[in-house]
Amino acid sequence: MANNKPIWFTSGSATLQKRRFRDYSTDALTSKMWILPDGRVAASSVWHYHWLLSNRAVAKEFGMPIDGLPEEEEPIRLAALRAGFVRLNYVHRSGTLTIEANRLRLGTAIMRAILGVVTENLRDIYVLNFNMLSVPKRGRSWLYKSESVALFTHPLAERRLLIPFVGKKARRRR
Question: 126: which strand partners?
């Protein structure tokens, strides 16, 4: 992924060919994306769980047992996080991006994809919330750590270094 450009997932139903949150809306207020466990990014024209239901083959490719789940948001969301998917939700009105990831499945490809998506949208993200969950294969899931950064208060050139859980590691590699 040269120059922090994410690899975009370009097939499947309910998948948009958009890379900037401001270029589309999932509903009247938000834009949504998934980062797949292999680091590819999928912009969604529908709610997160509907995208997975519409792309069952993708979910199964990464070991998500989508056929055995109730077709509801919460069980599908947790199963996706457990399988290594990362959920992104951008609110247009406030410029807030919320990232939700499983700390047990946060590998290099995922971190690069997060960095790439945020970098491509830096001018539009005023506040970045990153919720790091612990979603084990068995047992209860919990919020491990949550960080929020008001990116708009920092110079544009510094913002990518401030991405919680990702920017700090990027800063150390320099």
Answer: none
Quick one: pLDDT at residue 6? 67
What pLDDT is attached to residue 174? Answer: 40
What is the mean pLDDT of the segment spanning 126-146? 90
Structural contact between residues 53 and 34, judged by C-beta atoms closer than 8 angstroms: no
**Alpha-carbon 73 to chain mean position:** 16
pLDDT at 1: 40
What average pLDDT score do residues 78-99 get? 95
Instruction: Locate the domains of the chain by residue range.
Output: 2-173
- How many whole angstroms separate alpha carbon 136 and alpha carbon 87? 17
Q: Say which residues have a Cβ less than 8 Å from residue 13's Cβ, sequence separation at least 6.
A: 54, 55
